[in-house]
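## Example record

The block below lists the input lines for one assembly entry, exactly as stored, with component labels intact.
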Amino acid sequence: MHYMQVPSQVEYERATSLEHALSLLNRPDTRVVAGGHSLIPMMKLRLAQPEMLVDINGLAELAYIRLDGGQLCIGALARHADLLSSAIAGEHFPIFHDAERVVADPIVRLWGTVGGSLCQADPSEDLSAAFAAARAIAVIRGQDGDRLVPVREFHRGPYETVIGPGELLAEVRVPVRPGTGSAYEKVARRAGDWSVAAAGAVLRLSGGLGGSPREPVIESAGLGLTAVGAEHFVAAEAEAFLLGQAPDTGSFAQAGAIAAEHCHPVADQRGPEDYKRHLVAELTTRALRRAAIRAGAPKSDGDRT
Amino acid sequence: MRVAVTVNGTEYARDVEPRLLLIHFLRDELGLTGSHWGCDTSNCGSCVVWLDAKPVKSCTVLAAMADGRSVQTVEGLERDGQLDPVQQGFIECHGLQCGFCTPGMMMTARWLLDHHPDPAEAEIREVISGQTCRCTGYENIVRSIRWAAKHSRGTQ
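Predicted structure tokens for the full assembly:
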């Protein structure tokens, strides 16, 4: 019993409505708890010491995944398991299924939430890079209404977001565009572990699809990187390079090399810096190849979908 | 604060600190020591119980979060003096050695079989991938769950 890890003293309130949650969150040192699978371990270690927890698990109005006005809308309280099993999400953004399949383990995924992952803002967390690649929008609700923040501007740094007092992440939405393909590739040391490195790609191709004789080109590219010190989880230089390129092995390998050059991994127990850069190059290339195939580009030998 | 939880069909209410974890509520407040307190970091899964019919690592949930909800623990697997097929499977196939991970493994297995009565080996391995066994190498745990799948309740 002497070595039992327990959080320090904390007040607990269960939000009975969104308005109730927002009013509670106006108090200082208050944190939202949903799945709690990141926050509670951090509280045990005193890395987080909130005065009060606001439990939002009862807010069913935040637990949904649906198409609305040409956008995939994911309520902040949608569980990882919900996103993984959502046919709508899988149809439009297979990147989210790829990523969710490697978020923690199946039991944790039953409780951990999409919103919680983004708000935890852990640099090794998978969904941040996936949503950054997809250029998702965070819908932040406050007592005066909603404000929309691109996920690429949502994180202010490790464990820090733009969410202020009296605010709550309500939804993440992603515009659905035809001709888009996406994928996420991760390397971890063992099942359920954080990434050593991971890359997510969202590609939109134009021309040449559907039997047209014109060669396809990359019309837009989103690249997200996990756990390698990429600013806002984005490989911006590699994205810029890809615009107008043919979706082929050569351009994907070059984009991977650019992404590896511009990220900032640090050596830790998961590997040295050069190994992580190697992974960024390789995983970016693989994610791009899979995304392109899913967008309708022709397969080459050894490709998988 | 007052926390009331229905555990294995019986309602219990206790005055506890909001910071009390569900695993300690079960073990220390209610004396239900079947669920094991292991790594304390949501990695090992020996503390898995069901909260509102879904498995959860109870070292990572506050008892307060379970207030008004229902919990199932390994103590609730046996029915009318008859072991659950999952429990019987662990006996038949030698699915445990030290037994520390066993309660969590069995709660996850029961949940899997309730949703997928005939899981493939890969599905079994996936669903227990967040739970650690240092004795069996998992081989006999997978066999035990397969045994339970073949012997649903009442057919053993």
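Residues 102-115 of chain B form the longest helix (14 residues). The radius of gyration of chain B is 15 Å.
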